[in-house]
Amino acid sequence: MPEAYIVEAVRTAGGRRGGRLAGWHPADLAAETLDAIVARSGIDPAAVEDVIMGCVSQGGEQGFQIGRGAVLASTLPTSVPAVTIDRQCGSSQQAIQFAAQAVMSGTQDVVIASGVESMTRVPMGSTGMLFAQAGLGKAKSPRQEERFPGIQFSQFMGAEMIADKWGFSRADCDAFALESHRRAAAATERGDFSQEIVGVEIETPEGMVCHDRDEGIRFDATMDSIGSVKLLKEGGVISAANASQICDGASAVLVVSARALKEHGLTPLARIHNLTVTGGDPVVMLEEPLFATDKALKRAGMRIDDIDLYEVNEAFAPVPLAWLKHVGGDHAKLNVNGGAIALGHPLGASGTKLMATLVHALHQRGGRYGLQTMCEGGGIANVTIVERL
To answer: Is 375 annotated as catalytic?
Structure first.
């Protein structure tokens, strides 16, 4: 079977809600990463056969097929098509997998997988709330209610269920959050993000500056400061401090065939080794990465010890903690440069964002195999295994 290769992977630095990226239209922000992918790889823009863009809140400025809008805001020719997809938090990880499938099937040779989310300008859940406020129906259908009577699908409640099931305390979650900030701060100070971040210009009272540093990292975080944040549920373990940060951002990954490598003189960063997506319990919801990883490793003929680095999205601290406990992984290999608790979780952009971090970290640390997974609304999970080249 033909193989799929990652040639380039980039992201913007995260912007906090109402922060440095708040002035960027999401189509323009996504266009910055598309342009950077083309420029850094050196490929002819006209050679791009498709752009697959993940985005969760597809309304307002992220409506009107934001993938195509980003192409039209970029330097790519108008002949480049695009599509926007929603697999909730895994949207742009699924974009990578769709791009790889297109290449591996021989259908296409050069595809950009990408994602964008401006959670400042298009708040999470805002599209559904507008319909509800207008009295235009409910998210949960009558047949869903019949199958899951009286059950509210909630990621927050799913995180609390995971913490209870796997025995994680508030202190466990806060300690994990602190480590996320410390690792992200250290990676920033070392310059580990420099190869993956695309700097974007922003206007400040002091003039135009380049935003190239993740805005959400708390360099002075302590257990006391994290522990002082109010719990979201009385008697629970989840707070805003041990959950992912609302974030603005965009990211992109260039996926090509072996034929494209030769034809365009490209140098691959990694080979895509395994693609897996599974569905599970929609109530606990966020636990599915554990079981999806089991399936991915089995299909790849690998064990967790074969994996050098893992990126497990930090939607809520209990998720990567439970994943680590279930698979028997090494905490030292998990989210080595911090995760969404410190760096932010720009929903539809997180999949390609995490892949950018994973691929570059494998090169920096000399690892061979990397595994990426994340929990997704509705009880779904993607797992992607890559091999550094």
So the answer is: yes
pLDDT at 338: 98
**Residue 345 is a catalytic residue:** yes
Contacts of residue 350, defined as CB under 8 A and 6 or more positions apart, other chains included, come to 89, 90, 92, 93, 115, 117, 251, 313, 340, 374
Residues 308 and 370: beta-carbon distance below 8 Å: yes
Q: Output the pLDDT for position 131.
A: 62
State pLDDT tens for residues 12-37. 999 999 999 999 999 999 999 999 99
Which of 181, 273, 345, 360 is catalytic? The answer is: 345
Eight-state DSSP code of residue 305: G
Tell me, yes or no, if 89 is annotated catalytic.
Answer: yes
Q: Which of 55, 89, 173, 247 is catalytic?
A: 89
The answer for residues whose C-beta is within 8 angstroms of residue 56's C-beta and 6 or more apart is 86, 88, 89, 91, 117, 124, 347, 348
> What is the reported pLDDT for 50?
98
At 130 the pLDDT is: 63
Q: Going along 221-308, which residue ranges are E strands? A: 247-257, 270-279
Q: What is the pLDDT of residue 134?
A: 61
The angle that helices 318-327 and 170-190 make with each other, rounded to 10 degrees, is: 90
